[in-house]
Amino acid sequence: MKNLTIGIFGFGCVGQGLWKVLHxxxxxxxxxKKICIKHPEKQRPIDPGHFTTDPAAILEDPEIDVVVELIxxxxxxxxxxxxxxxxxxxVVSANKKMIAYRLPELYNLQHQYDAPFLYEGSCCAxxxxxxxxxxxxxxxxxxxxEGIFNGTTNFILTKIFEENLDFPTALRLAQTSGFAxxxxxxxxxxxxxxxxxxxxxxxxxxxxxxxxxxFNFGIGRINDFxxxxxxxxxxxxxxIAHCYKSGDRVSGYCLPRFVPKSSRYAGIxxxxxxxxxxSAFAESQFFIGKGAGDRPTGxxxxxxxxxxxxxxxxxxxxxxxxxxxxxxxxxxxxxYVRFGRENQVNPGDFLxxxxxxxxxxxxxxxxxxxxxxxxxxxxxxxxxxxIVQWGQRD
Amino acid sequence: MKNLTIGIFGFGCVGQGLWKVLHxxxxxxxxxKKICIKHPEKQRPIDPGHFTTDPAAILEDPEIDVVVELIxxxxxxxxxxxxxxxxxxxVVSANKKMIAYRLPELYNLQHQYDAPFLYEGSCCAxxxxxxxxxxxxxxxxxxxxEGIFNGTTNFILTKIFEENLDFPTALRLAQTSGFAxxxxxxxxxxxxxxxxxxxxxxxxxxxxxxxxxxFNFGIGRINDFxxxxxxxxxxxxxxIAHCYKSGDRVSGYCLPRFVPKSSRYAGIxxxxxxxxxxSAFAESQFFIGKGAGDRPTGxxxxxxxxxxxxxxxxxxxxxxxxxxxxxxxxxxxxxYVRFGRENQVNPGDFLxxxxxxxxxxxxxxxxxxxxxxxxxxxxxxxxxxxIVQWGQRD
Lengths: 394, 394
Known about the structure:
Chain A has 13 helices and 17 strands. By secondary structure, the first copy, chain A, is of the alpha/beta class. In chain A, α3 runs parallel beside α4. Helix content of chain A is 34%, strand content 27%. Chain A is globular. The first copy, chain A, has two domains: 4-118, Rossmann fold; 137-290 and 324-389, Dihydrodipicolinate Reductase, domain 2, CATH 3.30.360. In chain A, α4 (96-113) links the parallel β5 (90-93) and β6 (117-118). In chain A, 52% of the residues are buried. Chains A and B meet through α1, α5, β12, α11 and α12 of A and α1, α5, β12, α11 and α12 of B.
């Protein structure tokens, strides 16, 4: 077992929790040598001698073999991570946006400089999903990966459906509870779970998918009518990221979905996340854990550090095996579309219409639509239009 | 990646499923060379040339590098596994009884002959719990591991609480559904989940625990009164195996438990299993998957075979780190004890009594009792006495 010398970038909640636990555990042989921060004037709970404001003090120190990147800014994070890998250092990060956008480069850097890059904390915080996809579901029998990948929106939806809060109140509560990202639109508009989906697409099915290739639609337009409609169907609404493989084609999207009150998804409350893996042989495998907050993310970072002590690295086995391609082209979904005025939505975009409703102030259509048609629909830009996937399965 | 040549012992459902999937997947490079069976006269779905009745045809064939042991008999299974390991072959097994009883020997054989032995299928079938304990929760921050480890009894309890079946009818249904072990008392009296607990105790906390050290009590004595009592408390009954670490002491037992109808455990239905890991940093981590049946077990066996292609072996990291000891001595639990006649149970065995009830045909006590006192209580042998743990937590 290797003894690690660590340099950390950022000393927010996750960094502080990590400091504490690394000093408590006997199981991991790792010392933190230096912590690089932006604001040296801030009060810190530990000796100021541990800090530096100079990235080179970590990145160019040959004694430091592991860099833990825990800053918010995706661009700056990529600079740190790529420079560390180029210097042959192992890197741990939980920065999903940075990773989702830069996966091909990060993949190449790891190979070129033979330096491991681990990022379990980037997907569903405490749930060990990347590691399980890499190591346990490493054959080609996996058919679908989906779940509740965003703690903030799940917290908001729980408060709406269980405590009858309205959307703005629920959002404020998520923010004061410390769950929301600094930019709440990343959560609300489902960018955050989409980034995670892009990362999991590589580890589950071996495809590099740029975030712009994946359709995402959030929960910001859910109104009273939608909530009443969900309840009338015995459902709640959850924000679900979904991807699946059919033959050599992989597809994926991130949409709100009606789920029955008795379903496993409805049982996932507040900041918890859930991942559902379907495979040919094991059928449904369901993982539940805290998906937001400093301690759950810290636990994932800690396990990555621990893995580095025995020289672990991702092998991207599916990518090596696969030759699958990502395309949403032939995918169709069942969809509820709620709008206000006639002609605000084009019914001709639907392949089939199952239900239609109109009243003075609200109309809706439930029908089957091609995902690429939906993605291109101009009416979807209208803030008075909302969509929810018509529950596909439990 | 290594190309494996496999010999299989046993060709029941799991073996047949494995045959099928190994021929379908591109991800695993493995060929089945020989299958050893007991009854050559049976009709088989594949070419008879694949079969042998001579164990040596597999165990002494230097071309075969992996032995997959899928027979029922624990003693014969140990002979096969130990001989294979001595011959330097990698071994995969799902035989929980054999493994639980023989863990120290199996551990030593692996080290002595440098041959890996993997047995993910032995614990909770499709849930990758051993692998996660080994690789992901490999530091000393884990505090407790518990869950529903037996699919048959969970199936029976689900039918009792959700479909109002009586015990014998529910048991017969489990048997005809193909879930029950050949000896149903292994399930009903909670030996099967105890074996799994013994295996997980080593991978979670680094302690070798003989099955006889662990207290188990099953669901065979649950009667109408107990069921009505559970319902009156808004609860169902689940059979829960539980172990935890406190300082350097590890404790564990397997008991029926009242769980609230709204709890996650109550949501685990039929043959599904669940594992709940608590750790200092990640808090609760919950895994759900099918815990009985040929395909879920087959999926675990398959993942073990797949892991062997990249030279995976268990490192028993906690055992190397730990120095913890197993002891139930200071453990106390809250317990419901139901009985028929006065003095059938000794109230003096309780440290504290919270509730007492008596009617003409049924009496119960709810109170706090030391686990070692309970284990030694003579009244517990009386078939008219039943116990259920008073729900400890969600």
